[in-house]
Write a structure and sequence with these properties.
single chain, alpha/beta, Rossmann fold, 2 domains, nine-stranded mixed beta sheet, two-stranded antiparallel sheet, globular, binds flavin-adenine dinucleotide
């Protein structure tokens, strides 16, 4: 079973977002594997341990992605591919097109990804790739069972569960609850340093920057307004009720 995992590095979810000149500053920020991709990595390793085969991560991003990739290699991934060419960094269309070109050169039975990247959070890339490869996609998996050339997936649907089957190859995106990602062991960390990480440029994958040019443009990035302090009303409960309705109408303007 050859498994590809789409792996994106994102801000640590504890990080405070700071804007500088209208862009999110990366100054002093801690980066991690996108949490949903960590479930995908764990699941790929578990399937490999049960059925044999190889796990390869594929990423599109800058040089800093290497630390997330090495963590995945230390967990048990066999090898990794990183397209670290700024000429092909763009929007969701760009990411999907570039990753698809890399995938086309691989032999695979299954592709695992996160259901969303916690930073840009478009939840589009795996769906676009499935369309470009013309293979099925099942999103938000919380349980995966493989039987020969078929896969059964339990997916989370807003707290309910839906069970779907598909023939391999298929793309599955992972949801929280799929598994408990392992911590890399010390020997795993040592081994990861020597595992292959292929760095590719647009040229290497035969993609011209024009062909994958972003189709969307970010016009503005801004932080949500600061939360204002709450107000506690006092007096008779009937007076409080009247004051509340008045405030909702005149100040909050919600009624
Ligand atoms: C270096 C860099 C430069 C960027 N520059 C721009 C820019 O100029 N303009 C702009 O609009 N946006 C830019 N982006 C944001 C970029 O468009 C999005 O990161 C990308 O389109 C994916 O969207 P998403 O993160 O919302 O992924 P989602 O669709 O939410 O991700 C779902 C899953 O897809 C997979 N995936 C997503 N992205 C990647 C990836 N890069 N590598 C591997 N797997 C992935 C992961 O498994 C992830 O869990 C940049 C991103 C990076 C990393």
């Amino acid at each position: 079973m050859n498994i590809l995992v789409l792996l994106k590095q994102t801000f640590d979810t504890e990080e405070k977002i700071v804007l500088e000149n209208g862009k999110v500053s990366e100054e002093g920020v801690e980066f991690v594997i996108n949490p949903y991709d960590e479930y995908a990595v764990e699941e790929a390793i578990k399937i490999k341990e049960e059925l044999g085969g190889e796990v390869t991560t594929i990423s599109l991003g800058p040089d800093r992605f290497e630390s997330a990739i090495r963590t995945a290699l230390a967990m048990g991934v066999d090898k990794a591919i990183l397209v670290d060419d700024p000429d092909v960094f763009g929007d969701e269309y760009t990411a999907a097109k570039v990753l698809t070109e890399v995938i086309k050169d691989q032999t695979y039975d299954l592709i695992l990804a996160g259901y969303v990247a916690v930073d840009d959070a478009s939840g589009q890339v795996p769906q676009r790739i499935a369309d470009m490869l013309n293979i099925p996609i099942i999103s938000t998996a919380v349980k995966i069972e493989i039987d020969g050339s078929n896969i059964t997936v339990h997916r989370d649907v807003e707290g309910d569960t839906e069970i779907l089957e598909a023939p391999l190859p298929v793309i599955i995106t992972s949801q929280q609850g799929l598994n408990d990602p392992r911590y890399p062991s010390l020997p795993g960390i040592m081994k990861a340093k020597k595992k292959p990480l292929d760095r590719l440029s647009a040229d290497d994958i035969g993609v011209s920057p024009d062909e994958v040019k972003a189709k969307t443009e970010v016009i503005e990035t801004f932080l949500p307004p600061k939360k204002e302090a709450g107000r506690i009303l006092s007096g008779e409960i009937s007076d409080q009720g009247r004051e509340l309705v008045q405030l909702l109408r005149s100040e909050a303007k919600v009624i």
